Fold these 3 entries.
Entry 1:
Amino acid sequence: MGDTTIMSALFTPLTLRSVTLPNRIIVSPMCQYSAERGEATAWHMIHLGHLALSGAAMLCIEATAVEPDGRITPGDLGLWDDATEEALKPVLAAIRKYSKIHVAMQLSHAGRKASSHVPWEGGQLIPVAEGGWLPHAPSALPHKEGEEPPLALDAAGLNRIREAFAASARRAARLGIDALEVHAAHGYLLHQFLSPLANQRTDEYGGSLENRMRFPLEIFDIVRAAFPTDKPVGARVSAVDWVDGGITIEDTIAFAHELKKRGCDWVDVSTGGVSPLQKIPLSAGYQVPFAKAVKEATGITTVAVGLITDPAHANQLIEEGDADLVAMARAMLYDPRWPWHAAARLGATVDAPPQYWRSQPREQKALFGDISFGQR
């Protein structure tokens, strides 16, 4: 008789240009606020190193600022000069030596949410008088009532940011990064352009949805052109703002259509972040319907995120076509071997370093594939 094994949908491969993912699990980009002058530190070696051994298909490096003023906090990771590029080299070299995981990077600019304290120090705006800097944004509208307004970007400022994204994409290519994600979500600069809550410009970058999409689409085009054509580039979006008058799912679908026309390889569908007035109804997989809506309307490869913690649930999302990939953040920090445990539950295999092969439970001898471990 032939092989009757049914493969779990979560552990089927997916190809994006030259990158073939062995399963549908991504480690989400997670800000660590632990860089020094934008440079990766020993923390990044530890943090990314252990997640690289998770068994996920791809590991996405945290939101990486394309210029110093684009950092959310003074501790944000950056990729804007030779020093920030050099600091990532040993981290990536260690990952490459011991893991087969694909490594992506999320390129970002914080816009009006820049110059903030790290979350464990309150996360609020750092005034210039206390060592902060004056952020730039589409319009001179503060993120939070009572804060000092940001500077509205003029033509020179827009051009500076265009050049910064291009330069960071080229540096990422030199580092051997496998894929890039353009951050247009969570209330940061490109999301600020998209949302009428943050964008009240009267030029060609404000007003209609077509105008509000213009600068984020320009940035996507710039990043795509600066990165090797055989490597994928995706985008993260906030599908809705959860505030009246903000972005709607229809707006996001229109944006996704335009991204697809420009060769975007995936859309990572999140929500919120542009206003502290948002009211988010949290529940397991609460953002999945938005990923499903984008996928059904556009046919683009979609990534589902948000309170997806159960392997059976994640597998069901892929199996039923709600999304093509699942990205995990908090759940992966809590359980850095989540893909191992998911594979064990779903009867699949994952990649693991030989140093760890002896760890598989006796009842899960096939978890790491057909391996042998001899000992004298």
Note: The radius of gyration is 21 Å.
Entry 2:
Amino acid sequence: MLKISAVSYLNTIPFIHGLKQSELIKIIDLQLDYPSICADKLINGTVDLALVPVVVIPKLKEAHIISDYCIGANGSVDTVCLYSDVPIEEIESIALDYQSRTSVALLKILLNEYWQLNPELKKANVGFEENIKGNHAALVIGDRAFALNTKHAYIYDLSAIWKEMTGLPFVFAAWVANTKLPQDFIVSFNKALEKGLSDIDMALAIEGDSYPNCENPEDYLNNKISYNLDIEKQKGMELFLRKIS
């Protein structure tokens, strides 16, 4: 049985729905985790395939991107943001989301190249997003970000700033295998993902009750998340991986 780890955020619902509605669900062990755990499982070999933060691709002994679909954004994404009560030039320290790897690396690039600032970066624990105050900011990713988007005076959407800096979209996560998979499985897997993406309303109706924080999930999935790993996203991903190498 093929072991697969997928991200347990709202933005993955179309993928999860497509896989659950396909015949593949009978031959896979589908596990839902937050992104850094997906990464650890693929690196450690406890799963065969995962929707992983792209930052881990260079760390794998073998890395096979097996799908034309990803978790990406062509501009603002709403769920990968730096939250602060003061303007960025006044920020003294930033808590880094423990669920994230790619977004942490992206923030470091933007701090260095775009803002040219050097605040103290701190590892964060569960509940850190409740302690944003004064000159202390936080990078928050995923569904917890929805509740923060009306809570703080300054919100810096990292993929929007990446687009402004580079002119390219950003890829947060891709479907990566740590070994070569059978071609027939890859074809069936991509068909399942495509089916889920073709019926986002049904995916939300079936899977959406577990994700109550987003006020307009249809808009988020259709207009904020960009799922096709097209040429422009590949260029953005390659640029990002060069910058972190």
Note: The mean pLDDT is 96.
Entry 3:
Amino acid sequence: MSQNIAASNTRTSRKWYKHLYIQVIIAIILGVIVGHYFPGVGENFKPFGDTFIKLIRLLIAPIIFCTIVSGIASMKSLKSVGQVGWKSLVYFEVLTTVALVIGLLAVNLMAPGKGMHIDPASLDGGAVAGYTEAAEQQSISGFLTHIIPETVFGAFAEGNILQVLFISILFAFGLQLLGDSGKPLLATIDLIAKTFFKMLKIVMYVAPLGAFGAMAFTIAKYGVASLSAYGALLICYYITGFFFVFVVLNIVARMTGFSLWRFLRYIREELALVLGTSSSESALPRLMTKLETLGCDKPVVGLVVPSGYCFNLDGSCINMTVLVVFIAQALDIDLSWQHQLSLLVILLLTSKGAASVSGGAFITLAATLGSMNSVPAAGLVIVLGVYRFISEGGALINVIGNGVATLFISRWNGSLNMAQLQQELDRGVKKKSLVDNDMLAKADSKTEDIRVHRT
């Protein structure tokens, strides 16, 4: 019987080094070592990370389009779409507001920039000129007009998530209004989506290489020294991020009826990928697939996750509030509570467009400083060196936040399969138990062999 158990568990268990998150973590560690001890070599690995991100972004637009169109067109009525839509917007606005407030409170309490006494006149704005120029286009009217692309294919060519989202929803509504005559086209779109996910599976084989290249370049370019130089800022940000995830999102998870810790274990491969590449977009397609496996309806996943990547960037909201106030503290600029309240209102609007352009969070930060007129935009130079390390934390929080949001909205909408959710979240524990049972079975077999031999 022990041999049968061992044989069964051997087939079920999977070698540890074949897990993607293990491969990515090893790649990250190697990247840190190469970047630190061989910085000249480490900077040359930048194309590895950039190429992997380009491969992911190549697939994101068509995957979002196919998923949203399939999801909305599969719904029984436009009323169902509207219900998911308004619930998503309410949730996004509440959680991003909470993230902004928590970031504001934390940076005021810890005051990481106090005592730096940097003279604003000594700042060289040339290093952030590109960001400030792009920020000039980030006005409210510019943001609204930017949602609509010049052409249908222009959004896909640029990889603009917000524009792809707009086209996808519009196309889905049109397809649903076709009724039964549109079903063949819907089936074709579903098949195209499956093809793109197969392409994604192929791309994931080089994920460790991309993570290695991105991390080697980051450490070689900015160095571990930049971490210690801005230690107080990093501590402030990551304490705030941990609080938001393990307190705020944990409360949301419990309200939904699942364990946040088990959910984090379930998406550990996606989190490792985001950590290595500093991009939440790298995990978007795989996150959508896993949420469907957890029991969320495909239409809800297809609508909530892509829109969450535009309107529910909790990590980006935290880093923007922390960085704006940190820059003011470093420049000895006293921001009154009226200024900080106006900052909160501005960020509630500008943060919604952070995903619409490349380097969106930093550009949005520049736009926010430009709107305040109390903190010079050239102050971005102060955080330019350490921003990469902060953006990694923001990307992780964005992925976790959108995963929790989808599960919560699915439960709120009455379309979450709770039995399937718990079963899938338990799989990680069961896999570990299977490995343990396998080891016990082998130990029992060896003991039996020894006993027989002695006899």
Note: The first helix runs from residue 2 to 12.
